[in-house]
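Our preliminary data section would be incomplete without showing what the modeling component actually yields. Below, a chain of 651 amino acids is followed by its predicted structure, encoded as tokens that our downstream tools consume directly.
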Amino acid sequence: MNRALQIWLEHPWRLRFLALGLAVLMTVVGALLWRGPLHQLDERTGSAVWSWGAGAQERRVVVVDVDEKSIQALGPWPWPRERTALLLKRLDQAGVSLKLLDILFDSPRPGDDPLRRALASPIPTVTGELFALDGKEHYQTGVLAGALPGACPQASLPAEGYLAPAAGLLSATALAGHITPILDPDGAVRQVPGLLCYQGKSYLSLPLAGAWAALQDASVPHLEPGKKLTDPAWWLTLGDWRMPLDAQGRYRVSYQVPRSGWVSVSAVDVLEGKVPGALLRGGWALVGATAFGAGDVVPTPQGGAVGGVEVHAQTLAALLDDRTPYTPRLASLWPWSAGLLISLGLLGVLAKTRRSVGLGLPFAGGASLALLYGIHGVLLLSWHWWLDWTIPALYTVLATLWLSGFELVRVRFERERLYHHLSSYLPAAVAREVACQGPSAQVQALCREATVLFVDLRNFSAYCEGRPPEETATLLHLFYTTATRVVEGFGGVVEQMVGDGLMAVWNGSEPCIDHGRQGLAAARDLWDALGAQLPHLSSQRMPPLDVGMGMESGTVLIGSFGPAQRRVHTVLGETVSVAAALQAMTGELAYPILLGPQLVALAQPKEVQALGQFLLPGLARPRVLHALSVPMDPRRLRLVYEAEDRQQATA
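Predicted structure:
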């Protein structure tokens, strides 16, 4: 593995901060590339919050609806202007305090005189006018009304053309408000220009113009920039009411009142006097057409196709209750602060739980998404803040994925490292089995026909006497390393290393077809290799270092034993006992390699010498032993140093 990668994997916090950094980078790129889709997702999911805080029935604003019932009773829309004038007169008689007409009177028609007189009623009446915003339409129909004093303020959208009431229909002091919507890519109306600028004059929307007319005083709407971080970009002050506007002069429509919450009366019932007087008295009448084919149908978050009059009604209700949603000036800090809190939460999960990759991180990521959406909803309904939540949500998803991916890589690296360490203490096959299985208190062992070899460093204890531990440890390390290399080179496995001896098995943990012959070949090679490596030092006080080996073939039981909290891997059986006893007798019989009868019968080696029957220590019946013929190095038989010989000769 690359050393740099290993360093990163060995320092998990570096890796985790790298994952969060990559998540931030990808979030920024994603926000730039997917600005449109993310905005639409924000709008659609955010609009669903309105159902949480659906208010009670709204009685201050009454919708006078030119609905299907009215069309069937009185004929298709638009009606003759005399009938519209009569409708306005009936509303005056019912005692309404304000009339807002979501209707365009953009061209002269018969009946304009009675309509002109109805519009000039002492009760404030605001008519509609429409502007073009796309820059493609330059029509100019009718005469604009309701322009605010002074030049266009900074927070206003430019308009290119207009449809206004016909010339002479409105008096010089009459008010009008635009009914120009802003359509989102999905066609829904979620924002409306509070102020539109045309040829140096600014015009209010119909609901805002109606609220201004209801004041019936000389105060002029004025704009003030937001000063606090919790303020919108602009405040539009209308007497006692304030409407929050964004930098382009738009306000967001609140759809908190459910469609069933409006008081809606049919226009034909008003004309025929069938509406109870208490229902209209003192209210604001909003006149509009919702009948099929009336041409005033727009999608909103509340429905696929509703009358545009409902958009104005929602605006008026929110204005009266001071709950128009807006984006505060601190909105630019929101994604970063939310991302920081989410990062701390995810890092806290990683620090506290060991199962973070499998359970903790995905759960924490999902909980963070739910929390973000919940905070968005609470802020919208309680403080009327509209904060985009999809950017922090995208970061949450990316951070969770990157952290999970990096943690999986790190855990995989740690497991592989643990496995490599484990396989250095246990045979590789046993290490794999231990790593893949859970702890068990049962005997987990298999019977095999195998060849067992015991190797011992003879006279090692005497060699260690008076020598520094580092020197003896180096010799023992050399012995283990050489023995392991030779045994594994011939298909065997070193099963145990204890003290100055070891046990090797062929066809035990790892399969070996011709285990008898392979074991004998390994014993010969091991004799030669160790003979060349062991120090040839001896004296009258210390016998020479040498090697003793005992080998036997037969049935063995190999596996794990002991309680679940402390297992041991070993090889058991009569074959093991015979091989161990043979190794112990090598010193007494003065043969370095002794073979058991079953190994000789299995492998049928030629270079063996029968030694007769012997009763092995700890066993009940005698066995015929054989010695494997190996070349002897004369240096192994020397009893004294050359220096000691010279010293004795001098003496």
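Residues 205 and 550 are 103 Å apart (CA to CA). The chain is about 40% helix and 25% strand. Preliminary results of this kind motivate Aim 1 of the renewal.
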